[in-house]
Amino acid sequence: MMRPAIIGIFLLMALPAVAMQPEERLNDSVLETRARTISREIRCLVCQNQSIDDSDADLARDLRRIIRERLTAGDTDAAVKDFLVARYGDFVLLRPPFRASTLFLWLIPFAILVCGGLSFWVMSRRTINPLASLTPEEQRRLEILTKDGS
Amino acid sequence: MITEIGHFALILAFVVAVAQSGLGFVGAAKHHNGAMASSIMAAVVQFILLLGAFFVLMRAYIVSDFSVINVFANSHTAKPLLYKIAGVWGNHEGSMLLWVVILALFGAAVATFGKSLPAPLKSRVVAVHGTLGALFLIFILIASNPFLRQSPVPENGQDLNPLLQDPGLAFHPPLLYLGYVGLSTTFAFALAALIDGKVDAAWARWVRPWTLAAWICLTTGIALGSWWAYYELGWGGFWFWDPVENASLMPWLAATALLHSAIVAEKRDALKGWTVLLALLAFSFSLLGTFLVRSGVLTSVHAFATDPTRGIFILAILLVVIGGAFSFYAVRAPNLRGGGLFAPISREGALVLNNLLISVLAVTVLVGTLYPLFIDALSAAKISVGPPYFLSVTLPLAVPLIILMGLGPLMPWKRADLAGVAGRLKFAGLATIAVALGLGLYMRLPLLPILGFVFATWLASAVVTDLVQRSYRPGNSIGATLLKALSLPRATWGMALAHGGLAICLAGIAGAGLQTEVLTRLAPGQEFLLDGRRLVFEGVTSVAGPNYTAQRGQFRWIDSAGKTKGLLTPEKRQYPVAKTATTEAAIRSDVLGDTYVVLGEPDSAGAWSIRAYRNPLAPWIWGGALIMAAGGLLSLSDRRWRIGAPRKVSIPATAKIG
Amino acid sequence: MRWLYFIPVMIFLAVAGIAGYFLLSGENPQALPSTLIDQNVPATDLALLGDPSRLTATSFATGKITLVNFFASWCLPCRAEHPQLMSLSKQQDVSLTGIAWKDKTEDAQSFLQELGNPFSRVALDTSGRTGIDWGVYGVPETFIIDGMGKIRYRHVGPIMPQDMERIQAVLRKLQP
Questions:
Q1: pLDDT of B232-272, one tens digit each?
Q2: Could you give the angle at the alpha carbon of B45 between the alpha carbons of B44 and B50, nearest 5°?
Q3: Continuous H helices in B2-32
Q4: In 3D, which of B78, B169, B163, B160 has the Cα closest to residue B578?
Q5: Mutate which of A13, A42, A46, A115 to disrupt the C interface (most C C-beta within 10 Å)?
């Protein structure tokens, strides 16, 4: 019971600072735009579900600074993300990477749509053709009944 | 002493819930009128007992009775009265109590207002409520008792998290719970139908008003939560695909799908198994949400202080309730024989497709939310599934859904001629193309907002087209047409408002994509330009609130002539007892958007960093959601739902046609 | 076709099973695994407290096991774990290195003076950049490095008495 509380405090300790300050911005607006875009896809590791662009945490500010340093040094967007992933793992990316382990994640919406669509199609075929779903016994009875009526 | 009464009321409510459940199920099975009537009465008694217990807890908060551990942990004498009251449900134990109170409320509502329901169905519904109530009451009594006392009694409390001391957030949980827990009635109806072995048009008609009531509350609750996040968390975002937000979206999606598929079940006696499954799913998603918030398995802004034993207890309840319900479904549902026929291209077909798309959306959100857990269990790898994923997969699904929403209401039942329908939507199509061209070529907006506006226009014009076509007769004047429109059934207007509200909400979301941001550092007296508006920074003063001190900045919005058009006062607050700080944004809303200013940090020279945003059409997001809820209310008030389908009466043998 | 109706309950049981596994294993779902396990210590160059030489990556390949503890004077849980670190410092099989993360030199010094110094050497990572290179996202964090300079284990959060068993097991496993 203590451990979650202590870890909670441990996380809170990292919180005193503030969100993005004007001085953090790079002078080069192209690089700065790239930095903001990348930051929005990097998770703040000491927050509950925020990107480092939105976060007030100290660590978020450090990571924002590192991203800008690496961009200024000439890294591509992918290289900057790889730099962070090498240190913190895939968890730091808010967009899950497209990999064998995440194949299911990315394909599942499409797969369900296809399966659902197929079942809808199959079901609609059956409702159009009610006669086809009668057993031979039932078909004979139907004939007898309809003959009776005439 | 009074606290003990509250505690006793909980225990008594548990006993009543068990009785309610037993009497209801057995009475319905054996057609024992006395047992069934008793279970109905028990539902009302259970609600009164739990409401009493809730008021006892509320009283403890209001008088700041710190001998009650729950009050001590979550309140303080300096807190304003409204937040003392809101503190009742701002913590785990209190919110669980609110949960069971609302569960009992819906059970009692069925008991009282379900006059047209046949007795066996009614008592089974009430019995399911009783079972659910009993399960959660054991949990509360054993693992989450809000009435535990302590001695000696401390001087003062530990205060509520200041983030929760907010009018929006004070009402967000009760509304949301009315929605979440309200779906328990839908769930109960589905189980009752499976036990009965019969799902017919009457059942579909009975289940709708209850689902609609829960849906209205859920829509409003989610909108309120989103609005709160927007103005409180300081960066103008309003939806983060946080696991607990997703946990409220999934039941909403399931309930929306259910409302639509119940129409087909009623009209065509088809999609019965599917409708029952949705009814079970909606509440299952609610339960899943309860589990996620309180067990700590997922990282979320919403999580209460987590405790694994609670998580295991709740998981056990889920296994019994959801596992039991789905197993029962697997065994009984194949016996529900479908009846009606309809062509794939028809209003029924459109509703089926609508259900398919909404279900894929719901499952996608579910998979995305639970995937990190899944991967962690299988391979101990940690991955994040954040907003970029959810946006990438939900947007492509939303597109066909919105197109369909425009077409569906104009399609006739049983068989539709697509070309004819398209023809009737000429105007909507033209409006859509005009907007696309205008925004794209003339205003040169980025792609995603254009798509948002285009689809919002499509949906809005389709709604208007539908209303016009139902009201206009060739040769009538505009006045006569308007009169006819106003006399359309409330359910029709309800649908128009619901779909139209979504269009407005969509336009608002598209507008949010056009946000402009200004990040700057200013000394008092300096001004800046935000999207063409002049804002002058007039400095920062210290102010004191009831339980906080704050730095308040003042910004004057002036027009080109220098005349004041408004004042914005963002704050940074410190709460001494809770030892936390919050940032309060200043927001000025007008019909076309929000001006949003946040105060940052001062530097050594006394200049402050400032973040300012212009969020075009932001109020439309929540305005649209409220209009959707209003549409639901209008539909609910339609007498056709309240009267319900007539009960079947047996015809005496002599009256049969020979 | 009847089996199709069992799909919802199957999916639910799978989800419940995974959730139950997590709850019962007592794992902290918020602790991140280190990406540097079984890899060499990342490039490091830090000033040492009371020593003109510097802490570099090569100084870990000494043949002896090193326990590296990232701490800070402003970190409350670091105080909670201090007794455990003091007891580890008395063991012969491991040497302790402390890294003061995002801390002022004087504050780190007074912290150690107040509570006792379990470390055979203390490095200063004032900017926190080295911590980021090690994948540190908060303090305290503890790394166990084998005699060849490879990171073999990371503990996130304070080392509480109930964690000591695990730490000792790792140390025993790494003995040359």
A1: 876 778 898 988 889 999 999 999 999 999 988 888 888 88
A2: 100
A3: 2-30
A4: B160
A5: A13
Segments making up each domain of chain B, as ranges: 1-165, 193-383, 395-513+619-629, 516-618
Q: What is the pTM of this model?
A: 0.88
Chain C: partners with 3+ C-beta pairs within 8 Å: A, B
**CB-CB contact of C91 with C60 (8 Å):** no
C134 shares contact with chain A (CB less than 8 Å): yes
Report the first-to-last Cα separation within chain C, whole angstroms: 61
Taking CA atoms, B578 is separated from B62, B76, B619, in Å, by 19, 10, 32
CATH 1.20.120 assigned to B1-165: yes
Please indicate whether, in this complex, the C-beta atoms of A95 and B386 are within 8 angstroms of each other: yes
**Cβ-defined contact of B382 to A23 (cutoff 8 Å):** no
Q: How confident is the model at residue C110 (pLDDT cuts 50, 70, 90)?
A: very high
Contact C10, B279 (CB under 8 A): no
Residue B21 near residue B130, CB atoms below 8 Å: yes
Domain of residue C81, CATH code: 3.40.30.10
Q: Is A44 helix (H, G, I), strand (E, B) or coil?
A: coil
DSSP H or E stretch at residue C21: helix C7-25
Chain A residues close to B600, C-beta within 8 Å? 18-19, 21
> Closest by alpha carbon to B490, among B214, B212, B168?
B212
Question: CA-to-CA distance for C156 and C171, rounded, in angstroms?
Answer: 17
Q: Which residues on chain A are in Cβ contact (under 8 Å) with B371?
A: 96, 102, 104-105
Q: Do C35 and A6 touch (CB under 8 A)?
A: no
Asked if B311's CB is within 8 angstroms of C23's CB, the reply is: yes
**Quick check: C34 and C145 in contact, CB under 8 A?**
no
Does A130 sit within 8 Å of B386, measured CB to CB? no
Residue A16 pLDDT class (50, 70, 90 cuts): very low
Map residue B608 onto helix, strand or coil: strand
* Residue C7: partners with Cβ closer than 8 Å, 6 or more residues away: none
pLDDT, tens only, B402-447: 999 999 999 888 888 888 888 888 888 999 999 988 888 888 888 8
Angle in degrees, CA B635, B639, B643, rounded to 5: 120
In a domain, C22, yes or no: no
Question: What gap in Å lies between CA B94 and CA B304, rounded to an integer?
Answer: 12
Binary contact (B342, A127; C-beta < 8 A): yes
- B397 to chain A, any CB pair closer than 8 A? The answer is yes
Q: Give domain status of residue C27, yes or no.
A: no
- The 10 Å Cβ neighbour count of residue B513 is 18
B485 touches C at CB < 8 Å? no
Q: Do C77 and A89 touch (CB under 8 A)?
A: no
Instruction: Tell me, yes or no, if B478 comes closer than 8 A to chain C by beta carbon.
Output: no
| Contact residues, chain A, for C134 at CB < 8 Å | 87
Separation CA C133–CA B125 (nearest Å)? 59
By C-alpha distance, the chain B residue nearest A111 is B360
Query: How far away is chain B from the Cα of A112, in angstroms, using its nearest Cα?
Result: 6
Q: Are C161 and C144 in contact (CB under 8 A)?
A: no
> Interface partners of A (3+ CB pairs, < 8 Å)?
B, C
Backbone angles phi, psi at B565, to 5 degrees: -105, -15
In a domain, C71, yes or no: yes
Instruction: Report the distance separating Cα B280 and Cα C141, nearest Å.
Output: 45
Whether A101 and chain B come into contact, CB under 8 Å, resolves to yes
